[in-house]
């Protein structure tokens, strides 16, 4: 688990605890606050899962343009001017 993930969990937990303490004497606002917090966490988790799925997609779909143009991938250093011919 990364430190960033642990800090995000701690932040959300502290927010939820703060909201519960703020509305401790009223059951309906506490439930609503917990529901809103759970909704926000759910939307965030959905967004993270969607972005990871899209980022992990390595295959091309039919009709997609290739990321690199077809052709030779290697270029001699002499042709680029980075070295002198022997």
Verbal overview:
The radius of gyration is 26 Å and the shape is elongated. The chain is mainly alpha-helical and 86 residues long. It contains three helices and no strands. It has a domain at 3-56. The mean pLDDT is 77. Helix content is 63%, strand content 0%. Helix 1 runs antiparallel to helix 2.
Supply database-style keywords.
86 residues; 3 helices; 63% helix
Number of helices: 3
What's the shape? elongated
Q: Report the mean per-residue pLDDT as an integer.
A: 77
**Class by SSE composition:** mainly alpha
Task: Describe the secondary-structure layout.
Layout: H1 3-22, H2 27-56, H3 77-80
Helix pairs in contact: 1-2
